[in-house]
Design goal:
The chain contains 23 helices and 24 strands. It is an alpha/beta fold and 738 residues long. Among the domains are: 65 residues, no CATH class; 96 residues, Sandwich (Immunoglobulin-like). A hairpin with a 2-residue loop joins β7 and β8. α5 packs parallel to α11 and α6 runs antiparallel to α8. The termini are far apart.
Length: 738
């Protein structure tokens, strides 16, 4: 009985921490959370459970919830003209609340505005109360200053009543009811835009991978085609060294940029840097650049080596001409010093992390000597003092990246694009990167997030990303989430949230077990959505949520109410008979697309390349699934041709059995089909315009194939000169009425 009783308490504690008891995968199979999974996930959250006394104490504390303290760490309030209130839970020795409580309040806005007040509150009516250790708590509404603007406020209350004095703190979030949506979209206009893997772009000027100068040129090209936006893969900070994960969805940090995308020849310091210009003109450099340009795959390590060498020369020149951040002596020097000061502890820590990674020749802080694993240790502080120039080098790289991205957005505006830039926010950061080093208390240990089995990934997926611990993130006022949004929301642009269900729940997978044996953990979605809406409205940036996979209906409803656009993939939009949904069925508040970076291109889909690759790499747990997929794909080709012909988009053929290549007319017809949809936004990937067969990433693989390294077959210059983009754009503009 004792063992069963402990197991029940562990399960109850897990539920109190947000661990769900079961889930259904996309095949309709129910998975129950095992006792072992509860224990492993509680350990990952650093919740005590092994000792029976600790278990009982922690369970009792969790069951109290918000009644365990005077104030919750976070509260939502509405930014309204009338007075708002915060909820305090005052202590009382008896179930009846005190007759009155004395309250001293202080509130500080983000801009430093301070509000002070004192009041005497008398609980009205029959306030809700709850038993707590040594007494009771009753909920009391505390009046706040009137006319609060949108934003964040730090509230401190000192309360005297019931024979006790208490102090509590809470972050108040005054958020709009929904995210930003431009008026013209709400009035029924529809548009389309391009999406591309920036790293895969070839051009006459880049150094073996696409860069921000290429992106600026693509903005000009997109404007001439009538596109409304240009989207790219996540631009988060990455390593670029041998052994580093090349995936933009497993970055070192989501708060900082990937400086491999810098166009160093465009840096203002290049004109004054004789050493850098001589290096770029040298036969050695020109040969390396030509070799990288000719390669079919991106060589991140070699690109990083070349760019790092030039970046160092540029920063030396910057310091000689403009001074260091500590001793700036020109307007440009002061501009950089202001950037460093505004970046604060976070930017300083990022520079220290990158400098330490170079010093130890290892991007994974978990393998560094122990004194350097703590970012606040004396050893790290001493290192930062001794390597001030190296730390500032990486801050300089971030400054250049922000400046060049500003130039990209400025080009979009000059070309008349309605949106500045369409960015992509990865779900998490790599386990050994900066974000987990700087915020170790917020991340779970010895587990990763992923997805349960589905039709495209029968074994499920483990993304190798450590999850944020919900209650610790909340206790920290969601500051890391806020900083991440601010770093990635382009002003006047769009932001796509990869796996947006992560705002509601995530599948946590304990170390060493299959994805299907994990369990979902719930997140405080109301507060996360409120922050998302607030930051979206502030930057006039539209939000797109990638809501694919196992998505309970209520999640899409809540996202829709918050103004988050759905992400509708053509392959998945089917009726009960597997037929492709007609364009009229697509919801207006959505972005429609043929495919994603994790799915086959239309050419690859038609040819069955993804199925053949999964067979070859033994990604099917059972042979029957491979056969079923092959039969299903043959059916899908027939249904695709039928759907396009029924709308008069395809005159005749092609033969669904002829899978050697995907006809250009079929690709154009499929894009036109989507363009006719009711969805306000439509995304066109460059791979679909030019008939590229290989997909960017095959989930479930790492070294088995060159994920995130395959370049586009044509150079940017050749793509611009090809008649195919203009031909397709004309059809899209007509269908979208732009």
């Amino acid at each position: 009985m004792a063992g069963k009783d402990i197991a029940k308490k562990i399960e109850a504690l897990g539920c109190a921490c947000g661990i769900t008891g079961q889930y259904w995968d996309n095949f309709g199979v129910r998975h129950h959370t095992s006792q072992a999974t509860y224990r492993q996930l509680l350990s990952a959250m650093r919740v005590p459970w092994a000792d029976p006394e600790d278990l009982a104490r922690e369970l009792a504390r969790r069951r109290l919830g918000p009644w365990g303290a005077l104030l919750e760490p976070v509260q939502l309030i509405a930014p309204v003209p009338a007075a708002a209130t915060a909820t305090a839970r005052v202590w009382s020795p008896s179930p009846a609340p005190p007759d009155a409580v004395e309250v001293q309040g202080e509130m500080i806005s983000e801009h430093g505005t301070r509000y002070h007040w004192e009041t005497r509150l008398q609980p009205e009516g029959d306030p809700k109360s709850h038993a707590v250790p040594e007494g009771f708590r009753a909920a009391v509404a505390v009046p706040l200053p009137a006319n609060l603007e949108m934003g964040y406020y730090e509230l401190t209350l000192r309360v005297r009543g019931g024979g006790r004095e208490e102090t509590g703190r809470s972050r108040l979030i005054a958020a709009p009811p929904r995210a930003y949506i431009p008026d013209w979209l709400e009035q029924g206009q529809r548009c389309w835009g391009l999406n591309l893997p920036l790293y895969a772009v070839k051009s006459r000027t880049n150094w073996g991978m696409g860069d921000f100068a290429d992106l600026q040129e693509i903005m000009r090209w997109a404007g001439s085609l009538g596109a409304a936006f240009v989207g790219v893969n996540p631009l988060h900070a990455a390593g670029g060294q041998a052994g580093d994960d090349p995936s933009p969805y497993s970055p070192l940090s989501r708060v900082f940029r990937n400086t491999l995308y810098l166009s160093l020849e465009s840096a203002p310091e290049m004109a004054a840097c004789r050493e850098a210009r001589e290096l770029l003109a040298s036969p050695e450099f020109q040969a390396a650049k030509a070799r990288l340009a000719a390669a079919a795959l991106v060589d991140y390590q070699e690109v990083c080596r070349l760019k790092r060498r030039v970046l160092e020369w540029l920063y030396r020149t910057f310091c000689q001409v403009h001074g260091t951040p500590e001793e700036a002596r020109t307007p440009r020097g002061l501009e950089f010093a202001e950037f460093v000061a505004a970046g604060g502890e976070s930017l300083a820590g990022f520079g220290q992390f990158r400098a330490l990674a170079d010093f130890f020749q290892d991007r994974d802080w978990r393998r560094w000597p122990e004194p350097y694993q703590d970012p606040r240790s004396p050893a790290v502080a001493e290192f930062a003092r001794e390597h001030r120039r190296e730390v500032a080098l990486f801050q300089y790289g971030q400054w250049l990246a922000e400046s060049q991205l500003d130039g990209v957005c400025r080009e979009a505006r000059e070309q008349g694009l309605p949106f500045s830039l369409y960015e992509d926010l990865a779900l998490g950061a790599g386990p050994g990167g900066f974000d987990t080093w700087a915020h170790q208390d917020l991340f779970a240990r010895d587990c990763a997030i992923g997805a349960p089995p589905d039709a495209f990934n029968p074994q499920g997926q483990n993304w190798g990303l450590p999850p944020l611990i919900p209650d610790r993130l909340r206790a920290a006022g969601y500051q890391l989430f806020i900083d991440t949004l601010r770093a990635n929301l382009p002003v006047g642009g769009l932001l796509r949230l990869d796996h947006v269900m992560g705002l509601f729940r995530l599948l946590w997978i304990p170390q060493g077990v299959a994805a299907a044996q994990g369990a979902y953990v719930n997140y405080p979605n109301r507060e996360l959505l409120a922050i998302l809406a607030l930051e979206s409205v502030r930057r006039r940036a539209l939000i797109i949520g990638e809501d694919l996979g196992t998505v309970p209906p209520h999640i899409r409803r809540d996202l829709g109410r918050t103004g988050v656009f759905s992400y509708r993939v053509f392959y998945f939009e089917r009726d009960g008979h597997h037929r492709f949904q007609p364009p009229e069925v697509y919801p207006p508040q959505a972005l429609a697309t043929v495919t994603t970076h994790d799915l086959p291109t239309l050419t690859g889909f038609w040819q069955g390349d993804d199925l053949a690759l999964k067979r070859r790499l033994h990604l099917y747990p059972e042979g029957e699934l491979a056969e079923a997929d092959a039969e299903g794909r043959a059916r899908d080709r027939r249904l695709l041709v039928e759907a396009l012909q029924q709308r008069g988009l395809l005159a005749a053929g092609p033969d669904p059995e002829a899978t050697e290549s995907c006809p250009a007319d079929l690709r154009a017809a499929a894009l036109t089909y989507l363009a006719q949809s009711e969805s306000s936004l439509m995304e066109v990937r460059l791979e679909e315009i030019f008939g590229v067969a290989e997909q960017q990433n095959l989930p479930g693989t790492t070294s088995e194939r060159p994920n995130w390294r395959i370049k586009l077959p044509l150079s940017l210059e050749d793509m611009e000169q090809s008649p195919e983009p203009a031909r397709i754009a004309a059809r899209l503009n007509h269908a979208r009425k732009r």
